[in-house]
Structure formats: structure tokens, C-alpha cells
Amino acid sequence: MDIKQIQELIKFVSRSGVNEVAIEQENFKITIKTNQAPTVVQATVPQAPLVQAAAPVATAPTAPIAAIPAEEDTSKYITIKSPMIGTFYRSASPEKPMFVNVGDEVGIGKVVCIIEAMKLFNEIESEVSGRIVKILVDNASPVEYDQPLFLVEPI
Fold it and tell me: pTM (2 decimals)?
């Protein structure tokens, strides 16, 4: 089982609402547990050390940076959503500039943020062209699969 399959399994577990999933094969065992605790992934391979990684599981949506007034029509905007569970970062490191800010124009393939999952830093690219209108997640906050991250006004 490779890292991509493990990430897909974690997504499935978070969507399904189950508390624990365990898979055991001939030379591989993985257990994923949820329910108000960190997701724990354990994998063992013969003659290899135990690999253990944890990713936080957010239990409630994080507070948006800029709240959208109830009367504001957001239907004209496109939402960039998180493709995985992890920690949202707006820049590659604290001393580097933010990937995007409100008002910036983005194109298809432009990196808009990083999501850290299982100690891997995944660059999230825009799938739309437009102008960033809202950033919906605070920097260094946990995010869920399919959670809205940005609102983009198409160009």
C-alpha cells in the first residue's frame, strides 16, 4: 500500500463517519482511528521499523479570516476546496511570502497553499482562473477533506 492509497483511505474514513478501520495483509497492517482524537496510522513491514504518523482531525469548521455577510451572494464565486485532511499553510515557511492574498489573480496550476498530511507537504494548485476574493481558513489551522479554503471570482 503506497502513501496515496493511505491518504485515500483516510479520506474515506473521515467521510464515512466510522471510528476505526484496520486492514491487515500478508506483510502489511494499517489501523486508522478517529472520534475526537488524532488519526493514527501504523504500518509495519517485515524487517522494517514501525512507522507512525499522526494528522489532526478537525471536529468543527475553523473560523474564517473574513466572514461572509449572510446577505452577500456568493453563488458567483468558485470555491477551492481541500483535497485532503491536514494542516493548512499559506506559505512554504514562516519567513517566505504567502502564496496568495485577497485580490491576487490565480491561474490554473498556480500553487495557492500547502496542506501538511502525515508529515508530507502537499502543494495545492488552483483548478480555476480568477481573483481571490476570500481566504476562508486561518494559517496553520487543521482542515477537513472537501473543506472550502478560498473563494475565487472567475475572470
Answer: 0.54
